[in-house]
Amino acid sequence: MKRIRKFSLLAILIVGGVLKINAQATSPNPISTVAPLLLINSDARSAGMGDVGVATSADASSIYHNAAKMAFSTSEYKVGINYTPWLQNLVDGLFVGGGSVINRIDDRSAWGANLRYFSLGTIELYDEIAVPIGIENPSELTAAVSYALKLNDYFSMGVALRYIRSDLSINSQNTDISPINGFGVDVNGFYQSQERNYGSFNGRIRAGFNISNLGPKVSYTSGEENFIPTRMRLGAGFDFIMDDYNMIGVTFETSKLLVPTPPIYGDHDDDPSTPDEIVKGKDDNVGWVEGIFQSFSDAPYGFQEELQEFTIGIGAEYLYNNSFALRTGYFHENEFKGNRQYATIGAGLQANSFNIDLSYLINTASVNNPLESTLRFSLSFDLGDIYENF
User: Fold this and answer.
1) pLDDT in tens, 316-348
2) pLDDT single digits (tens) 65-111
3) Which of residues 296 and 8 earns the better pLDDT score?
4) Could you give the angle at the alpha carbon of 180 between the alpha carbons of 176 and 183, nearest 5°?
5) How far is residue 131 CA from its own chain's centroid?
6) How is residue 297 annotated by DSSP?
7) Domain extents for the chain?
8) Is 79 helix (H, G, I), strand (E, B) or coil?
9) Nearest by Cα to 118 from 372, 370, 380, 379
10) Of 10, 304, 312, 323, which residue is least crowded by CB atoms under 10 Å?
11) What CA–CA distance (Å, rounded) separates 260 from 291?
């Protein structure tokens, strides 16, 4: 008999045979998806503003939030790296890291590439007499390429193709869990108005949308298919440009998983030998395309529950002389659909072509957050020619 001595929290789920990763854990009726890396925000600038990012100004993490923003990048090249500790209050060795590069090709178009990695810790395996028999390192990885094109001076569209790999198998245990390999497509748009005068200050409007991870279902085990976290994000913002040195940007964002809500089952005939039947909601055993459309009207408790599946984020950023930034924000998820609720603070510093961003999360919910008391770091570099958007 083999035994495990040191493990990550997620590894407990794997060894115990729990194959679905709840994107909205602790909910009475959670929506289950796989590949949690796709929903973890490791961008420190966005993280300091309540995880808003679909309608903020272009930066090195635009590929993750909204690839269409790349066409508004002010540098010929942007190179970024980021690092986020995960569950650091419980176990060591869990983190999300990644890097990206964006190239503004000309006045109207840009391309980018992004790589992200999620380390789920180290699992040390021992036999029945405590002899080491191996070490496992479950992990997830995504790699994306994207392209953005301005349709006019103020609006751009973007598309991204993403490869997804999730390896949660424990080979030494001879489990039937296999790595998954899948793909997803993002479709997005971004609007940024020209700077206008509003009396005592100038202003600029921003808006964006992103439908991410459009792709087929995948399977950890034979005969059981799971949804990847297809998600819709909508956002809008406004920049208060006070003078040549001071600017305050405010951004609002809402998001929703485009994945079917599980129905509620019950035993109609009180016979434990017969399978339960659906008593509320719709059958969630559907294809991924049908699941996207069904996700807007399948909540067992109707329209009120559908509204509960939307998250809300609001963030603010104060920028001084394009060199120093202070940020804050708040993120809210309904208590019955995950109960992620937290405030965030952050800061950024730019020196020549070098940028560093930090963020910190303050949990305000009754459940623990894996990023509580965690600093997220991002570095980026602006290289090459400078572009003026107008």
Assistant:
1) 999 999 899 999 999 999 888 888 899 999 999
2) 999 999 999 999 999 999 998 877 666 678 999 999 999 999 999 99
3) 296
4) 165
5) 40
6) T
7) 3-384
8) strand
9) 370
10) 304
11) 5
